[in-house]
Amino acid sequence: xxxxxLARALTLTLAVAxxxxxxxxxxxxxxxxxxxxxxxxxxxxxxxxxxxxxGQAPPQHPFLAPNGRSGMHADAAGSGTHPYSGPLGxxxxxxxxxxxxxxxxxxxxxxxxxxxxxxxxGTFTGFLLKLLDPRTLDTLAEYKLPQRSSTVEAITRLDFxxxxxxxSGGAYFYLDDQDRVVLADSRQHVLRIAHERAADxxxxxxxxxxxxxxxxxxxxxxxxxxxxxxxxxxPVTSVxxxxxxxxxWVTRLGRVGxxxxxxxxxxxxxxxxxxxxNSFSVAEDGVSxxxxxALYSFRADAEGTPRIQWRQTYDRGTGTxxxxxxxxxxxxxxxxxxxxxxxxxxxxxxxxxxVYRRGTGxxxxxxxxxxxxxxxxxASTTDNSLITWGNSIVVENNYGYENPLSLTFGRSVVxxxxxxxxxxxxxxxxxxxxxxxxxxxxxxxxxxxxxxxxFYEKEPNKLGIDAWYLTAIDFRTGERRWRVLTGTGPSYxxxxxxxxxxxxxxxxxxxxxxxxxVRDRG
Length: 522
Hints:
By secondary structure, the protein is mainly beta. The chain contains three helices and 35 strands.
């Protein structure tokens, strides 16, 4: 079929599929389990006693929802911690919602002031912003976001890796202090979206603000009406507010910008030759962004233009490892302890955890606190945020994970989890424990209220059964306390989505076909 004829046919097909812009309330449909789920262990270990971990939570950001509810990494500092208890393993119950026949993964999960769940789910016809009942996972309201160019490329060029390594389109969004979603869609627009209940009892999602970045960001992107673009497409990957209320945004090709919500003024700079694939973190002293070359601290000047406070290069290795999105650090910077920031590098043999002092007046030879190699030779990488609490850092090994097809037929990754502590005097770091838990690609979380770390685990299986488990590890010792089977088959692969602990104690995880939840019944 000629390319123009193919383009017209595909355009018509997708136009029909995209006619529904919003959706009414709908009951959740469970994600089906693949054959073999009765042939694997359903539950191992024993319920844990809650043992809160002492320490001070990251400062509450004045323009974000409360810590633990606001975004993928739980708070502005990117700590990966939640202040309320997750499941303890007491007769756990599993529920799920299937979002689409193929795909439908719900990545970031946030919670409004009433505990309702707000998430963005990816489908082949576009991302869906969804308001869910946190217990039943029923859809209360839905708003359709534009389709990403990577999806069109994947379908037309039969290269689905483009989807799995695309962090743009709204996956990194945040919930602000007024329960509004702020995200960047695939049209290079920043949207602020509110939800409200109508007089008839139904819910709706409404765009309150729409800031167009296309004057600052190249946007000749692949679409069903532009299959062979000749220009540049630079997707926006993440947004976060600073302490003054500006909305910061970053793009894949290294643009860093701000939107002033009061005036709608937009300012931006470019990190030439660098990519930004991860989210970023914010504190009163600045905005921390990691590219595939360096770690940066930014502040905005009086006009809102991003200005570099300091820049620190790291070992980016010689190529992209299996388990990484690009050649560089796979971590969102973590701001923790007494003025520290932590990332990982992409060193060829063994990845290192790097801790830096983040002040502006620090001499170059004093900025690095420690460089700690983790995991095995030739088999270490991570493309997920670290967990930080007090002076402790927890890191997960994602080496070998590429997409939901890479672990089918009972395969797994080499795995591993380590805890590293910065010494009290700031004179270096020490490895406290190492666990062999295989958590292929999740963003793990810590409940500071019960002392448990939560991972999404998959072990090799000789029968070819792909069994996925929510696993709880003791933060103090690294011991696995319990794990529960959530489902079997690729539909239950979390494919880079985080675990998120809700304020009612439920643990949620986005999975390839939607979202699943684990809560105690005992």
